[in-house]
Amino acid sequence: MDIRRKVRLDAFTTIGIGGIAEYFAVPRDQEELADLIKLAQDKGKPIHILGRGANTIFGDFEGFVVYTKNFSNMSVEDEGNKGLRVKVAAGVDLHKLVKLAVDENLEGVYRLVGLPATVGGAVSMNAGAFGYEISEHLLSVKFLGWDGNVYTAMKQDLNFSYRNSPFPSLGVVLECEFLFQRTNRPIFEEFQSIKRLRKEKQPINMPTSGSTFKNPQGHAAGKLLEEVGMKGFRIGGVAFSEVHANFLINVDRGTFQDVLKIIQVAKRRVLETFGIELEEEVVLVGKRDAFARLD
């Protein structure tokens, strides 16, 4: 089993910020993953499951970071009028699912073009964009429970909501099954339009962790942040983008502490101005004392 000690995590996130993981593990299959969970539990250590690291920012982490890149199988079964049944392992790049949708003229998932995520990560946060959420065409999820057993749950038995799912609380996503319908409407033009919009409206050429905050009910987080002066606002090596105020970017060797501080400022300003408490969409993973120093 591939387990390393004291691994820097900045190279494993899209924002390029990361502290040091006490343990960094790359399991080859679900049996090794189960062994890792048991090992971590025996040591009393927390576990963080890592895909593309697109919505994760790390500080130092005293536990096991588990990298899912080896979970890479994908199968497609054409069911005629019913659509395409697709089984995708958790570590598969979301881009492969988007490409399949474009090639086969499938409804929905093509709208997630440009999201740098694994399928397991996307399902775990119920990723969405342009009016679509990945859970929309989800049939079932196979997962490894924290008790070491493998389960399969149908979507209707799982509680998916806006940017939220029961994972990883229930366990680690192993495989997702989807049923996508073909559409008579040509989707390629809309697919290209979404790609253009992302280039125009989001800082896709900068190191970023994507949307920092979830949109509160009836509001756009980016608009709220812009109205309280956070667009372009910088602390240390990180800033909220001039292109989109809800995107944190790593301007110059940003640190986890910089991230915590600028998020705290943003939340305080929005709360004081609008009475709205923003909730992070980005996942912040680090030592508890790093957060305590900001209290």
From TrEMBL:
GO molecular function, one term: UDP-N-acetylmuramate dehydrogenase activity
GO biological process: cell division; cell wall organization; peptidoglycan biosynthetic process; regulation of cell shape
Coiled coil residues, start to end: none
Catalytic residues (positions): R163, S211 (proton donor), E281
Every FAD-binding PCMH-type domain range: 16-183
UniProt entry keywords in alphabetical sequence: Cell cycle, Cell division, Cell shape, Cell wall biogenesis/degradation, Cytoplasm, FAD, Flavoprotein, NADP, Oxidoreductase, Peptidoglycan synthesis
NCBIfam families for this protein: murB (TIGR00179), PRK13905.1 (NF010480)
Protein purpose: Cell wall formation.
Record-linked PANTHER family: UDP-N-ACETYLENOLPYRUVOYLGLUCOSAMINE REDUCTASE
Family as reported in the entry's similarity comment: Belongs to the MurB family.
Protein name: UDP-N-acetylenolpyruvoylglucosamine reductase
UniProt source species: Thermocrinis minervae
Classification of source organism: Bacteria, Pseudomonadati, Aquificota, Aquificia, Aquificales
Gene name of this polypeptide: murB
